[in-house]
């Protein structure tokens, strides 16, 4: 494991965070970072709503709009946090020793906050469709060390990580790829009512696993029950299911059989009926 450019960037960010945290103090730093996180979480909740409301099509446009919403609301949240924390900081500065203790605590807290943000971004970006960046993140000594000791992200950050991991980065060799064969026409069998009904009830399953988000699929087999593969939810936390309409629901594993690679998820707010099943002979 060697020192990489990403490690250097993280160390520089930590140095700036220590300097900034010392000037701002603990309570002002805490208020700003709390406002930033709250703004980003609210932005991740609103992003799908805005995209659907304006009928935005195309993965690139959707990713760009979602990221812009995260940035804008995160900035607003940080500004609100500053407005809340500044009076506390001024009161502490009026005390003989309160200002110095607050400054040292702010430096330590800001350094830890930057490391946490770096780890979360690395966790999110490690699975983007950009091999050079993904490989650089995987080789980072600092990020691998943080990932070894940090717990899994809380479930409420799942939507944020999904947006970040879904950003479409341009390929470094765009325009140089060989021309592949033309796509084959789709068979008429995919347009049958049965196939369309099954597609409407197919759910996207995701959870936080080792190194990033783990994706899979499933379908309802009973009231609030979803059948998926065991390897999709093995070792994951914050499991959610997403319907074809884009609605995301919290889920928990109630049956896990790794030998048969089968798992059952309980989704309390799932309103889909069980998928019709039938037996057939080969």
Task: Describe this protein's structure.
- The structure is a single chain.
- The chain has two domains: 5-152, no CATH class; 193-266, Trypsin-like serine proteases (Thrombin, subunit H, Beta Barrel), CATH 2.40.10.
- The protein contains nine helices and seven strands.
- It has helices spanning 5-24, 26-53, 59-93, 98-125, 131-139, 141-149, 158-165, 193-200, 230-233; strands at residues 203-209, 212-222, 225-228, 237-242, 248-250, 252-257, 262-266.
- Strands 5-4-1-2-3-7-6 form a seven-stranded antiparallel beta sheet.
- A hairpin with a 5-residue loop joins strand 4 and strand 5 (248-250).
- The longest helix is centred in the first third of the chain and has 35 residues, at 59-93.
- Mean pLDDT is 80; it is low at 168-179.
């Amino acid at each position: 494991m060697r020192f990489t450019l990403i490690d250097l960037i993280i160390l520089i960010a930590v140095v700036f965070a220590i300097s900034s945290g010392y000037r701002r103090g603990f309570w002002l730093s805490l208020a700003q970072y709390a406002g930033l996180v709250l703004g980003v979480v609210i932005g991740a909740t609103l992003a799908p709503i805005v995209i659907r409301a304006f009928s935005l099509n195309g993965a690139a446009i959707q990713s760009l709009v979602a990221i812009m919403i995260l940035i804008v609301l995160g900035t607003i949240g940080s500004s609100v946090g500053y407005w809340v924390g500044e009076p506390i900081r001024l009161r502490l500065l009026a005390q003989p020793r309160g200002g110095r203790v607050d400054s040292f605590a702010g430096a330590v807290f800001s350094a830890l906050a930057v490391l946490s943000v770096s780890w979360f971004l690395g966790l999110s970006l490690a699975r983007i469709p950009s091999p050079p960046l993904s490989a650089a993140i995987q080789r980072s000594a600092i990020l691998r060390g943080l990932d070894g000791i940090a717990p899994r992200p809380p479930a409420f950050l799942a939507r944020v990580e999904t947006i970040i991991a879904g950003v479409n980065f341009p390929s470094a060799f765009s325009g140089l790829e060989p021309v592949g064969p033309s796509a084959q026409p789709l068979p008429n069998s995919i347009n049958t009512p049965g196939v369309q009904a099954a597609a409407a009830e197919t759910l996207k399953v995701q959870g936080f696993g080792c190194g990033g988000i783990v994706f899979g699929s499933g379908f309802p087999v009973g009231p609030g029950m979803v059948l998926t593969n065991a390897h999709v939810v093995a070792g994951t936390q914050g499991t959610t299911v997403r319907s074809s309409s884009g609605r995301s629901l919290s889920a928990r594993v109630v049956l896990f059989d790794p030998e048969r690679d089968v798992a059952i998820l309980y989704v309390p707010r799932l309103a889909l009926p069980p998928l019709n099943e039938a037996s057939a002979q080969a």
